[in-house]
Structures are given as C-alpha cells and as structure tokens.
Amino acid sequence: MKITAIKPYIVFVESRGRNQMLVKVETDEGIYGWGESGLSVREFAVEGAVKHYTDFLIGRDPFQIGRHWQEMYRSQYFEGGRVLTAAISAIDIALYDIKGKALGVPVYELLGGKQRDSIPCFATVSITGGSPHFDDFLANVQLLIDKGWPCIRVGMAATNPDYGPDIFEPRESIAITAEAMNAVRAAVGLGPVLGVEFHHRLSVAEAASFCQRMPSGTLDFLEEPIRDETPEAYEVLRKMTDVPFAIGEEFASKWQFLPYIERGITNFARIDVCNVGGITESMKVAGWAEAHYIDLMPHNPLGPICAAATVHVGAAAANFAWMEVRLSPTEKLGAYEHELFPVQIVADGSSLPVPSTPGLGVDVNEELAASLTYRPSEPPHLRRRDGSVQNW
Questions:
Q1: Is 382 part of a structural domain of the chain?
Q2: Of 350, 366, 392, 362, which Cα lies nearest the Cα of 302?
Q3: Whose CA is closest to 249, among 227, 279, 220, 219?
Q4: Which of 346, 299, 322, 336 shows the shortest CA–CA distance to 152?
Q5: Residue 222 in contact with residue 244, Cβ under 8 Å?
Q6: Domain count of the chain?
Q7: How far is CA 317 from CA 100, 254, 270, 296, in A?
Q8: Strand pairing report for 295-296 and 32-37
Q9: What is the C-alpha to C-alpha distance for residues 65 and 46, in angstroms, rounded to an integer?
C-alpha cells in the first residue's frame, strides 16, 4: 500500500462558527484516512506545512507511522513549532485511521487495546448574572449535575460590559469569578468536581490573588491561568496556592511537556491530540505522565475527527480523568453536523462510547467539505481599558 494523495480542506463549520482544518490521506488501495489540525484561526499556515510534507510522503507506506512522524519533525532543520506539529498531527491521525481500516480494527487496538469502554467528559458553563446572586450560573451548574456530568469547568467572568466585549480587566474578572465559585461550591456541596479556566489571561500575582480569595478545597483544578512559555513562573505560582493545575493545551510536543511533568508543575495534562503531534506523540506524553501519576485531561474544542482521535487515546491510556467536549446542555454550539460528518462518535449523556468500528470511527462528506470554503475568522483582540493588549 502506498500514499497517493494528501488533501487539506479548510472548512467553515456553521455550528462551530469557525473554520476547521481537515486532512484526507488517500492510498492506492482505496483506503483513506481523515485527520484534523488544532491550530485554529491560522489554518492557511498549517495548509502550507501539509503541502510541504506531501512532497515527500507521496509513494510512502502509510503503515510506517512512527518513521513518518520522525521525518516530518526532524528533516527540516528548524524542528517543531505549533504550525508544523499541527500539520504533523493531522497527517498522523489520518495514517492511524488508514492502518486501523486496513487491519480491520479500531485505532485503540494499535495502541495496546482499550482500557475503558467509555470516555468520561467534562462540560463548560459560563458565569452569567452579577454578584451577589449568580442565579442563572448556579442553575446551569445544577442542571449539569442533575444530568450526570461528573466534572464541570467554569469559564472566567467577563468584565464590565459597559466597556464593550473586547475589554478584559483581569482584576475585575478574578473578583467576580472568585465570588461565583464560592457561591457555587456552597450551593452544590463537596461532591461535584469544579474547575476554572482563565485562558492564560492572568499574571502570577493575579492568579495567586484569585486562588487566595477562596477557601482551600473550593476548586479541584485551575486551568491555564498564565501563559506557558516560562515554566519557572508556574513554579512560583505553585508555591503560592494549593489548587491543582491543568496545563498543556498549547503544547506542541512532548518536549514542551517535559518541565511540567518532570518538575511536578501540572497535575492534569491537557494534551491536544491535534496540536501536540497526533496520536503518536499523545501516547508518549500519556506514558510519561503515568509514570508521574498525572492524569490526562484532553483539550478538544474542535470537531468529530479530533474528538474521535482523543477517544482512542483515552481508551488506550491507563491514566485518564475527563475529556473536554463542547456538546453539553449549557453550551449553544449544538451537535456536530451529520451532513458534513455522516459517521461520527455520538455522545451518550456525559460520556463518549469507545467505538468498535475499524479506524477512527468517523467519516467526512468530502464533496460538501470542498464547498464549505474558508471564511475570514479572527479571535477577539482583547484590550484593557488603558488600550494595552490583553491575551485572548
């Protein structure tokens, strides 16, 4: 079997309100695989990298997945980086899909077999309403608990809407968010798992101040409070709070995970299968994390290809907490389009079943994908009220 074509598709998905970067790998035996890149809003850069890799992968044996990974990563002198590993991820996932289909087995059988029959997921809820009541927010959290969601992530509070949607003031947000978390923990008790995501918008001092505004035990995890480029900054923050950290969704290789795992900085590994280097690299991070008693908590905000790849990694890994899905009753994104993705893994309440079909268990309407062309899309360019740039 030989690779005959690698086709990138930048597809605007209406229900997500964003573009998704899909990649199809075809072979001379008619077996094909689908992959997905996770580098949202920079899809043209990833498309270019995929085309570079296509130049030397055509004619290769698709079964040699590990070898191809090494060649894509190491053969351009300037190794790594999020653009390149996002492209590698998409191709790597598609190659696993091909191999599973060719052998007639689900992808997790290529990774050692499944260790669980379903993948537990977490839901996301936003803080709505203001202090001191948070009525809608508390009702949404209770709704998720009533529907059996084992873990709930809270998105940080927005700041004063009078200043407009593109203004974010960290100190205002942490005050509202801390008060809301105190209120929800008092309302739901100690049982539910509760965490907060700050989307790396805080400084070390701001993150510490946020944690110190709540009694110990209020939060089960704090996700990405500060940027990840400087592990030493996280080590300083680690000394200032006892809240477990969930870090890693931005990491583009096992090497970026190295200090966070080896130095005990993170407590949950937020791998993104579509950015870290695909299934090949995800399983290496999983084993490394297992040796340090760290569970996976995968980042998965994209489409059903990313979800399926993450399900197979989660099925095969021993150390697993919860997988992110954006399909909960408290979000407005809706189900993944069945017309575009006619074969996909369908959620069963708060979990995703592990499929038994060969490959990933997902397929794409390629003709429709080709018609859903790129639309200009840019995340919010946030500012503080003084005009300075703020992280999104």
A1: no
A2: 362
A3: 227
A4: 322
A5: yes
A6: 2
A7: 17, 16, 14, 8
A8: unpaired
A9: 19
Average pLDDT over residues 111-124: 97
Residue 325 and residue 298 share a domain: yes
Inter-residue contact 98 to 25 (CB < 8 Å)? yes
Domain contains 267? yes
- Could you confirm whether 199 is annotated as catalytic? yes
Please tell me whether residue 206 adopts helix, strand or coil conformation: helix
User: Quick one: DSSP state of residue 344?
Assistant: -
User: How does pLDDT run across 316-364, given as a tens digit for each residue?
Assistant: 999 999 999 988 888 866 667 889 999 999 999 999 999 999 999 999 9
The dihedral through the CA atoms of 62, 64, 67, 70 has a sign that is positive
Catalytic hit among 68, 200, 299, 312: 299
Closest CA to 368 of 44, 48, 39, 13: 13
Of the residues 68, 199, 292, 381, which is catalytic? Answer: 199
Distance of CA 220 to the CA centre of its chain: 19
Residue 99 phi, psi dihedral angles, 5° rounding: -65, -40
User: Is-catalytic flag, 299?
Assistant: yes
Secondary structure (3-state) at 18: strand
pLDDT tens across 120-141, in order? 999 999 997 666 678 999 999 9
In which domain, by residue range, is 230 found?
A: 112-356
164 with 253, same domain: the answer is yes
Q: Are residues 56 and 127 in the same domain?
A: no
